[in-house]
Amino acid sequence: MPILIINIKEIVQVEEKPQMMVAGKSMSALKTIKNGWLLIEENRIKDFGKMPFPDTESGNSEYEIIDAEGKMVFPSFCDSHTHLVYAGSREIEYVDKIKGLSYEEIAKRGGGILNSARRLHDASEDELVEQALHRLNEIMMFGTGAVEIKSGYGLTFEDELKMLRVIRKLKKLSPLTIVPTFLGAHAVPAAFKGRQGEFVEMVINEMIPMVAAEELADYIDVFCDRGFFTVHETDCILNAGMKYGMRAKIHANELDFSGGIQVGVKYNALSVDHLEFTDEKEIETLLGSETMPTVLPGAAFFLEMVCAPVRRMIDAGLPVAMASDFNPGSSPSGNMQFILSLACIKYRMLPEEAIHAVTINSAYAMGLSSGYGSIARGKIANLFITVPIPSYSFMPYAYGSNKVETVILNGKVINSDSLR
Ligand code: NIG
Ligand code: FE
Question: Residues near 375 by Cβ (< 8 Å), separated by ≥ 6?
Fold first, then answer.
């Protein structure tokens, strides 16, 4: 039965003419409808407008009616960068960090990504699915509707495939829209210590062809940064990935001016992510490209890093997307409401800019913006109804509490009690 939401205090991020992304000054112009209604048919947004609802709208007068008096409707958040398939957790490293060790020092001691790789190796596919489903259910009830998930804790041929197969199973089991990315070059595994070049060869000659043959990933990622993979290695891996139809979406400039942004743009990457080390030269490179600069405030917060210069990027006319980076080492949370708050508090984004960053621009950064990321006729009905809130700025302002009351994905109300 079609769903009709009535008496909506404000429908947020409405698009009459859908755009693929929103850049520069336009990020501060958020379109909304006050006192609105919204009609969902099958899995799509059929129509919306100002109250009262004209009953001629549909031949069918039978609706499931939801009265949203005092509440707002937002498009579901899009989270374009996560590593949420992992085994166990790493709070021991977190305590080491409190005691003074840096992320790089923890990694050098066999902690960090290699620690997660060992745990993932020991976990079965079923265990990984179970743990990841729990995380997916949690982020869903915080308002996320589409999420990218990377491999990268496998680091061997078998374990990378295992991770990607887990992601494929999750796609079938979860109502969330899931986009898989192959991140074979996340770290050099212990077995290849001192033989980084050979590992890169293996990624290129063995892993990429197999991932492509099994159609396990839409995108390819490399951790292009100081102490991880060089620009030259990244270039070779992206080149190989492209030949197999996987567009780049890379980790760049988190730890240094790594040249990652430039090599990403060279390969027309869909996004370059992190970007703490970004200057005028990098901004210049991004301007005029089709690459979405993606900032991960959760990781910068958790690791106490400098913030990416988001204000300068937007003022220069760039779009900015924001994602959670949900992972056990640098951002053990996928709560996009908190990302929205960090965007405003730490990056001085206006609530309007931040909302664009976590919806349409993040949808673009996973190739989904034609069907997700805004309230537009014909788009997939992925949206949420808030608890009663005074204004949309209350969303980033009241950090820490869950302001999402009802989740609708693919046109269906999600009942949190029935989730596996
Ligand atoms: O995005 N920067 C690289 N990778 C992850 C961290 C992964 C981990 O520490 O397990 C990130 O922050
Ligand atoms: Fe990451």
Answer: 11, 12, 13, 14, 15, 38, 45, 48, 73, 75, 383
Could you tell me which CATH number the domain at 77-364 has?
3.20.20.140
Residues of the chain with CATH 2.30.40.10: 3-75+373-414
Q: What is the pLDDT of residues 311-328, one digit of tens each?
A: 999 999 999 999 999 999
Query: Quick check: 410 and 380 in contact, CB under 8 A?
Result: yes
Which residue out of 119, 326, 327, 333 has the highest number of ligand 1 atoms within 8 Å of its CB and is therefore the one to mutate? Answer: 327
pTM to 2 decimal places:
0.97
Which residues line ligand 1 at a C-beta cut-off of 6 Å? 83, 112-113, 116, 223, 251, 254, 299, 325, 327-330
Q: How far is the CA of 325 from the centre of ligand 2 (A)?
A: 5
H or E, element range at 131: helix 125-141
Averaged over 190-196, what is the pLDDT? 94
Of the listed ligands, the closest to the CA of 302 is 1
Q: Distance between CA atoms of 258 and 244, rounded to whole angstroms?
A: 25
